[in-house]
Amino acid sequence: MATVNRESYAAAVEKLTADTRTATAAQLATTADEILSVARLLRGQPRLRRALTDPSRSGADRAELFRSLVAGKLGATAVEAVASLAAGRFSRPAELLDAVERLGVDTVLAATEKADELAEVEDELFRFGQVVSGDPELAVTLSDPGASIDRRVKLVRDLLKGKVRLGTGRLIEVAIEGLGGRGFETSLSRLVELTAAKRDREVAYVTVAKLLDDAEEQRLAAKLSDIYGRQVSLKVDVDPSIIGGVSVRVGSDLYDGTILRRLNEARQAFAK
């Protein structure tokens, strides 16, 4: 976000935090659902996005316009949080959508934290991503922008009913809708990282040829924590095709010490 957008977002977060200081996990989850329902409305209504970011209108007018549109349909907490965003300044209408969506995600995470389930939700999101990656048909279905979002959400709800926590299911639905305009799998990875960040942790995606034992995981996590100056959450994927060694990705940093990489480099060298 641009500086002014960050300021607008920070003001909305401050308002929401003050209004939910004594809220229960269930109350926060309800508010999150309501904010995310506004994001869905904005996604399908470009004219509304433009009206709520119209620089020719005052922030107070834009906030009041939003309140009038949702009066009696949403709880006061969600209404005032989004109204605070509408009163802010955004350089493009799409940025308001991104801000509302992110506010909804942050509220899901706040509810998850209140329920003391952040670590479990983080792990469930990652494991669902692995399930999808291992099932090409499911991956295509969930990533298909031409397919109805409602149909894809129903499919996921049926697949995961009773198997994951409430926060996990809601965040997976956000990924289906496309967080910040991203594709499904990229959105899911971003949500894993946001969940980890809520725990003040960095995510390290680790690929190995065979599963690490507990001691090996602890040593790797400790080494990465030293490098990045914060706790690291390892997300381990087993891929026998790399033959041996380990690949680690943290943000844009990639450390590839796999035997497969060395073999490919050797082939390239011989080919010259």
UniProtKB/TrEMBL annotation:
Its main location: membrane. InterPro entries: ATP_synth_OSCP/delta_N_sf, ATPase_OSCP/dsu. The keyword Membrane applies. GO terms for cellular component: plasma membrane; proton-transporting ATP synthase complex. It comes from the Bacteria. Pfam families: OSCP. One of its GO terms (molecular function) is proton-transporting ATP synthase activity, rotational mechanism. Belongs to the ATPase delta chain family. This is ATP synthase subunit delta. It comes from Actinoplanes nipponensis.
